[in-house]
Specification:
alpha+beta, 2 domains, five-stranded mixed sheet, 11 strands, about 35% strand
Length: about 190
């Protein structure tokens, strides 16, 4: 539910019977009825009937396939604590509008990326961008218990990382157009 919630938010739940829930409510539930199954999800109700509740995360394009019952329902999210503030969570009709807005934004992003992916990847392979765009990127190396981590920083923000031992990396767009192709500009 990124977009609605942030990492570090504390969710405040209200225990409600399943019959009191409505479309747009944000709920917390387990993936199964089993008490041993600890994987909990926070998603918004997108449809509700006597037979089942259908949910989807605000940052997801697909609805969940999990059957929600009284046994795996943990509660309805009514507030969040973020820093020193307590904020109300939009549930019901207004929550549904918020969820649909997030879903629309995600769909538009997916459509735009589908349109520009091919030219973007060709541009990335050509290395032309590194000749035109020359931001000062700080490359810093950190020793961790899992090995050496290289972080790429631009304007005090991490724009990418590389685990040197595994070769696993994650470079944010559009920095992936230049990091790796312009090694002389990446400084320690």
């Amino acid at each position: 539910m990124l977009g609605t919630f942030r990492i570090g938010d504390l969710l405040i739940l209200e225990l409600v019977p399943i019959i009191e829930l409505c479309k747009g409510d944000v709920i917390v539930f387990r993936e199964s009825d089993s008490e041993d199954h600890k994987n909990e999800l926070v998603h918004r109700i997108i449809s509700i009937s006597k037979e089942n509740i259908v949910t989807r995360g605000d940052n997801n394009l697909r609805k969940d396939k999990i059957l929600i019952t009284e046994k795996n329902l943990l509660g309805k999210v009514v507030k969040i604590e973020r820093g020193n503030k307590t904020l109300n969570v939009r549930n019901g009709w207004s929550g549904l509008v918020v969820g649909k807005a997030h879903h629309l934004k995600l769909s538009i992003k997916k459509m735009i990326w589908g349109t520009i992916r091919l030219p973007y990847n060709k541009l990335k392979k050509s290395n032309i961008t590194s000749k035109v765009w020359k931001p000062k990127i700080l490359k810093t190396t950190i020793q961790t218990s899992e090995g050496e981590l290289v972080k790429y920083i631009h304007n005090n923000k991490t724009v990418g990382y590389l685990w040197t031992e595994t070769g696993k990396s994650k470079i944010k767009k559009p920095y992936d157009l230049i990091i790796g192709s312009r090694k002389s500009e990446v400084r320690r």
